[in-house]
Each structure stands twice: as C-alpha cells, then as structure tokens.
Amino acid sequence: MTERKSQIISKAAVLIKKKGFDGTSMRDLARSLDLEASSLYHHIKSKDELLSHICFEMAEAFAIGLAEVNDIYFNAEEKLRMAVQSHIGLLTQYPEKAYIFVNEWRKLNETDLAKFVILRGNYERGIAEIVKNGEDEGLFNEVDRKFAVLTILATINWVVEWYKADGNMSATEIADKLTDFILTGLKK
To answer: CB–CB of 171/177 below 8 Å?
Structure first.
C-alpha cells in the first residue's frame, strides 16, 4: 500500500468515527485531505473499499494476536489475560479503526460481510477455546461458552466508546482490570 493510500485510510477512519459511515461522504474525505474528489478516486475506488480495508485490516490483526496467544503453552487464565491484553492493545493503538471495526462492520457490502462474519466467528471460537481449556483444567466453572465469549467480547469492545489516550488508565491497566472482572465470572 502506498503512503498516500495509508494516509487516506487513516483520515477516513477519523471521519467515519466522527460522522458514522453513512454520514461520511467521499467529498468530505477529499475536502479533509485538501484534494479534489477525482484525485481521491485515483487511490480509493469507493467508500465501501475504505470500510472493507479497515474492517479486514483490524480482523487480521486481532486474529494474529489471538493465534499467538493460543500457540503459547500457559494455563487458560494466563491465556485469557494475554488475549484481553492483545485485544485492548489493538483497540487503543488504533482507536478510530477499532471503533469502525466494532460499530460499522454491518455496513460492509454483501460479499465482504459474509467473509467478515466468518473471521469474527473464527475469533470467537479462539476465545471459546480458551474458556474450554479453563474448564478442562479445572480453573473455570462450566459455562454457556457462547454466552461467555459474547460477554467477554462485548465487555472489552466497549472500550472503543470511552477510551482516551490521555485518560486515567493505560491500556495495560484497562486490560488487567477487565480481565480480573471477567475472571470473577469464570473462576471456580
């Protein structure tokens, strides 16, 4: 990807977070970059391409982080702690893109949406694997895994709504506190 395209995607993420996907036009984006709309289309075909790029870029980053956690031999509690740390790290490192990933993915075109739902399902299964390992290791109560995974992800994804880089807690502190909270519902 060219540096200019990367700049366009970053600026688009800021605008989409501020105005929503539906409320952001290519004309708004071109204006914010001090470009003519025709010049913008030289780099990006459509607003749908921007959304797709952001959603899939983040999905890949989340998948890589979780795969690294699940490839390490630790007990399930440590794996869950590492998975939450990785997830929160991405949410806070790329707050605009993370916001779009969490809140705007349903607006992907039909083909991309189908692919994206598969990636989300794979990620959920990776978290479910950690929960199952915790049950098998006798560390976690037996729970409705689907409900547990959705609760864990909803809890940590909510960070995109309120996190501020200059806030009172660092990303690490947030991840630690959220993991401790999640573990109170899982641990025996």
So the answer is: no
